[in-house]
Design brief:
4 helices; single chain; mainly alpha
Amino acid sequence: MNQSADTITYEQLKDLVDFIRNVHGFDFGDYSAASLKRRVTRIMQLQRLSLFDLRTLLTNDPDYFETF
């Protein structure tokens, strides 16, 4: 794991939300940033993913977005 899941910043979260909107057309913009950060961090911890790994899965695995 390249980056500890508990180190995701709000800026990284914003970038991830923008990325998801651009790639998948889904807008998490109305979600509470704190809540979304907790959920994304939890996914990363459970699946032992770095932020890079998460973005890669969201880019290359169409089924993963449904899981996410």
